[in-house]
């Protein structure tokens, strides 16, 4: 029974390999798509931060990001009450898991949000006095 299972496994593997090689463009798309989508959403998040700063919410957003970064460093997760500034949401017990904590290179590439340092860097006013442009 073990011999026939091994033969079946080899035949099935060969069939999958032949299909993958025949339709390499589909295979490549399925492998690359999550990374490309994550990069697009990270860029969109930076653009949203830029638009919030242009609307006058830059200092508030920077304060919230600093609070989230500090809470992430201390406890590994952020409570909704720490972000809201009031105790109403504390009763809900909503916790947001830490994003950038101990992620490997692939985890960072698949992250849909930039890390706090990147977001704060893009929110900082430029030294030359020019208005930062969204990319």
What's this model, at a glance?
This protein has 135 residues and is mainly α. It is built from 5 helices and 2 strands.
Walkthrough of the structure:
This protein is mainly alpha-helical and 135 residues long. Helix content is 68%, strand content 4%. It has 5 helices and 2 strands. The chain has helices spanning 2-22, 24-75, 80-84, 105-110, 116-123; strands at 77-79, 95-97. It has a two-stranded antiparallel ribbon with strand order 1-2. α2 (24-75) packs across α5. The longest helix is centred in the middle third of the chain and has 52 residues, at 24-75. The protein is elongated. The termini are far apart. The model is unreliable at 86-95 (pLDDT under 50).
Order of helices and strands: HHEHEHH
- SS summary, helix count: 5
Determine the fraction of residues in helical runs and give it as a percent range: 55-70%
Average pLDDT number? 80
The largest sheet, given as strand count, sense and whether it forms a barrel, is: 2 strands, antiparallel
Distance between the termini: 60 Å
User: If you compute it from the alpha carbons, what radius of gyration comes out, rounded to the nearest whole angstrom?
Assistant: 23 Å
Form type: elongated
Unreliable stretches (pLDDT < 50, length at least 5) are 86-95
Provide the spatial order of strands within the biggest beta sheet. 1-2
Category from helices, strands and their pairing: mainly alpha
């Amino acid at each position: 029974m073990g011999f026939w299972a091994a033969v079946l496994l080899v035949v099935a593997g060969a069939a999958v390999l032949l299909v993958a090689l025949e339709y390499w463009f589909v295979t490549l798309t399925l492998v690359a798509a999550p990374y490309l989508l994550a990069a697009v959403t990270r860029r969109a998040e930076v653009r949203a931060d830029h638009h919030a700063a242009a609307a006058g919410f830059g200092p508030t957003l920077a304060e919230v990001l600093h609070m989230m970064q500090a809470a992430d460093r201390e406890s590994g997760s952020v409570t909704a009450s720490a972000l809201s500034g009031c105790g109403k949401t504390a009763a809900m017990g909503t916790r947001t898991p830490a994003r950038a904590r101990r992620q490997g290179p692939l985890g960072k590439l698949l992250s849909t949000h930039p890390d706090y340092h990147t977001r704060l860097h893009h929110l900082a006013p430029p030294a030359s006095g020019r208005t930062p442009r969204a990319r």
